[in-house]
């Protein structure tokens, strides 16, 4: 049986990323790529002083929206029935915002499109206990552009899981911030080790330049 | 020195406290395979330095002997792929082939990280014994596409002591996923290593921050003390 004719899709140029030009096979378009916004909530943006990283993510979001790209946002928080996961963290002094609190809400600058997927998690991995993988597969997503807070928390945990699932990932370095500059830098260095054990890293300007080339 | 004084000097082994019944605890040894840490294995064939990963064989052996003596479950993991590579993602294979010898390719001693090949085997110093659990994993995390979570739940095990290689890669992925599963994990820092020491040191610093957000970090002597204090 002959294959159905392929729809005409805009193709995007490779992104100058470390340690290789992303994606690995050169195949990416607005239809097979999702932008992930992890933990851009009022509390973490304020406590990490991550306004610049949020602004970089907002610029990527505007460009992605213009191309009709899939957008995923993840909020971390706990509910009354939080279970041991969030409770453990709070016991050890790493606060997680309560659902419905001011700190838990998405940052006011993050303007999600109507069809964005908004997920709530208690831990760090956006795939754990959610239908994120199914959602991405259904939409034919194979590439992920990842932004968020903190780099060594939601960003890296989610990227590790995505990478094990075979998604081709790029962490946007200046649209992520860690709980310290050293942890941010180290986690991104580990991401790129071994020719990209967990994918690649690039600055927002390189990603924007590719998105705006269409 | 009294037992009490010794316990007071040392931070708690489990961040959430103890002691814990031995039946709830398992020792996990991650990916101590020929391809990662033996002369002639994949990493060695790439010309990379395996001295860091080899340096933890003796301490892990000590932890293994202690776990067997205490009667706690021992879990070995092996990273590897089916001979037809149906479980190998295209980008994972591509990234490793840049080094000149990728996963699935024929190395000097069999196909790299392919199940059943000599390089995929656990090194003889740490070979599994009957009754120990061996988990075959296609990814970095020992929980990804494996039966590990089910096996732990079935046995009532909710505390893992983690060792193996490499600290920045499969060890960190396993500890993070253990946390997501609600399993309390503690990494033995003298029983894990990375190819590059700065990445190893950074991994330990990140894991220790905030009281151990995803689990604790201890060492071999802490492990011995924990087993002594554990309830049968």
TrEMBL record, chain A:
GO terms for molecular function: hydrolase activity. It comes from the Bacteria. This is Isochorismatase. Residues 46-191 form the Isochorismatase-like domain. PANTHER family: ISOCHORISMATASE HYDROLASE (PTHR43540:SF1), PEROXYUREIDOACRYLATE/UREIDOACRYLATE AMIDOHYDROLASE-RELATED (PTHR43540). SUPFAM superfamilies: Isochorismatase-like hydrolases. Signal peptide: none annotated. The keyword NAD does not apply. It comes from Xaviernesmea oryzae. The keyword Glycoprotein does not apply. Keywords: Hydrolase.
């Amino acid at each position: 049986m002959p294959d159905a004719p392929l729809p005409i899709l805009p193709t995007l140029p490779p992104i100058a990323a470390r340690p290789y030009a992303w994606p690995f096979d050169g195949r990416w378009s607005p239809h097979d790529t999702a932008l992930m916004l992890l933990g851009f909530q009022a509390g973490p943006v304020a406590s990490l002083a991550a306004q610049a990283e949020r602004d970089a993510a907002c610029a990527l979001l505007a460009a992605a929206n213009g191309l009709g790209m899939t957008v995923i946002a993840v909020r971390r928080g706990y509910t009354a029935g939080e279970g041991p996961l969030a409770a453990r963290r709070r016991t050890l002094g790493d606060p997680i915002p309560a659902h419905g609190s001011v700190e838990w809400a998405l940052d006011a600058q993050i303007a999600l499109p109507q069809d964005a997927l908004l997920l709530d998690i208690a831990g760090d991995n956006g795939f754990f206990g959610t239908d994120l993988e199914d959602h991405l597969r259904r939409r034919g997503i194979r590439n992920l552009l990842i932004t968020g807070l903190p780099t060594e928390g939601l960003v890296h945990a989610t990227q590790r899981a995505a990478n094990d699932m075979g998604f081709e990932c790029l962490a946007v370095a200046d649209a992520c911030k860690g709980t310290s500059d050293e942890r941010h830098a180290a986690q991104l260095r580990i991401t790129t080790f071994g020719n990209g054990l967990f994918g690649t890293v690039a600055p927002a300007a390189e990603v924007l330049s590719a998105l705006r080339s269409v | 020195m009294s037992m009490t004084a010794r316990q007071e000097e040392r931070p708690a082994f489990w961040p959430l406290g103890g002691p814990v019944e031995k039946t709830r605890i398992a020792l996990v040894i991650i990916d101590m395979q020929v391809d990662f840490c033996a002369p002639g294995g994949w990493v060695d064939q790439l010309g990379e330095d395996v001295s860091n990963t080899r340096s933890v064989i003796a301490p892990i052996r000590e932890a293994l002997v202690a776990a067997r003596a205490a009667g706690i479950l021992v879990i070995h993991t092996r990273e590897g792929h089916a001979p037809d590579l149906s479980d190998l993602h295209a980008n994972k294979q591509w990234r490793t082939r840049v080094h000149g010898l990728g996963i699935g390719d024929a190395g000097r001693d069999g196909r790299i990280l392919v199940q059943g090949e000599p390089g995929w085997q656990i090194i003889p110093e740490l070979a599994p014994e009957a009754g120990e659990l061996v988990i075959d994993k296609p990814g970095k995390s020992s929980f990804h596409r494996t039966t590990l979570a089910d096996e732990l739940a079935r046995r009532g095990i909710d505390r893992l002591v983690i060792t193996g290689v490499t600290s920045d890669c499969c060890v960190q992925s396993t500890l993070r996923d253990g946390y997501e599963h609600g399993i309390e994990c503690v990494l033995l820092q003298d029983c894990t290593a990375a190819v590059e020491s700065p990445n190893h040191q950074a991994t330990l610093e990140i894991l220790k921050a905030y009281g151990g957000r995803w689990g604790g970090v201890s060492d071999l002597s802490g492990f011995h003390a924990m087993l002594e204090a554990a309830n049968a």
